[in-house]
Amino acid sequence: MSSIEDRLHELNKLQNEQQRSRRMNDLHPLGKLFFSVFYIVCVMSLNKYDLTGVIYMAVYPAAGFVLGELSFRTGVYRMRLILPLVVFVGIFNPFFDRTPAMQIGSFIVTGGMISMVTLMLKGFYAVLSSYILIATTSIEEICYALRLLHVPKILVMVVLLIYRYFGVMAQEADRITTAYKLRAPSQKGIRYNAWGTLVGGWLLRSMDRAGAVYESMLLRGFRGEYYYPKRKLTAADVLWPLGWTLIIGALTIWRSWRG
Amino acid sequence: MLKIEHLHFAYEKGEEVLSDICLLAQAGESIGVIGANGIGKSTLMKLMVGLYTDYEGVLEVAHHAVTTKNLDHIREHVGYVFQDSDSQLFLSTVEEDVAFGPRNYRLPEDEVERRVTEALQKVHGEHLRKKHTYKLSGGEKKLAAIATILAMEPDIIIMDEPSLALDPKNRRNLIHILNEIDSLKIVTSHDLDFIMDTCERTVLLYEGKIIADGPTEEILKNGKLLDECGLELPLRLQ
Question: Domain coordinates of chain A in residue numbers?
């Protein structure tokens, strides 16, 4: 399997997960979206030296993976491209902040070391909570929730179409690279002088395909807005985000109060 | 139902793709549009659904002229099945995709549900309902694409090369399904045997003009005419 095909396959598996009939998948997307944003804001607002507070915040990703019946390993694997960037954020803190914070035996732990770990964990949790959201909610549902929050329809459509066209572009890229490789079997990768033509062709073909998809949408009455069936709220739809908002909100206030 | 009189169309000024096209079609008819590659079949189909509106002449669909102003009405009455089903199916599941059209017309959810169920039943594709569109085979994609159009309950269904890349079993299934649909059907295809099986009337295009319009058997048995227009007799008649 080519690497592009591999990525497409991964995207398809993620879509499979979104469509599963599990309790967390069936929850109203508005509650899940609201709480995910709330959680990220709370985690980010914790003091950079409050390592204990940040560790407490692991309660949501841990519960989310268990209750959402998601594989932690797969989640981390799928987020592998973002995680290094997130981890990189606080990497220089130990060099800039050398104030001793505590001592473990003869080893002095500096404020910079603590803030580095704290920042890394904060980023890690933000990525995990986003993953919990996207692995249990389809892009259409997320867009529906965004519309309920009165996010302008043009922005929501851009999100939806980028997601759709991403697949279209990846398929075209896969076709072009496969066709190239089949006619250059002994060659490793794609020769630099072919890149211009291939990328140009890829963009033109993707635009053609995207144009056809858009025409198909227009012909079925699309007028700039994607309509999702209205969902009735169940008790679980309210209790899930409310419960978690109270837990995480209380934790944040408590940690801020302690200073 | 469909009225075309002296229709002319050009992508570039002075280079006509279609010239002096005249065609009248009534409800319930089944019309095959045939012709060699690049002759303007797909262009004619796209004109009928209002994807191009800068034509000359008369083009009326469902009693409305095809103009930018009437596009909503026209698209509510005309369904277009694309040659490439991948262009037609863009949502995650077949169910969502089939419901996309009816929802755009703000139909109540129970009506959307009824239409989705009926459309899938008509193409014998109830089992596809919850399937992901990317997981479908070529034949299943074609059925799902037709269901997306049937769910809009159009008066006219236009199909661009519906039998393309289908295996014999799926092709036979498609013929059976098309023959069960009551709407006015306009089918373009190079598969003349398929046209013989699904259309009682055939329109032959050559160099952007209608060369012949009449009963399918009569036109498709005329080897000389087909040969002049760059086509060959259907396989079963060879």
Answer: 20-137+231-259
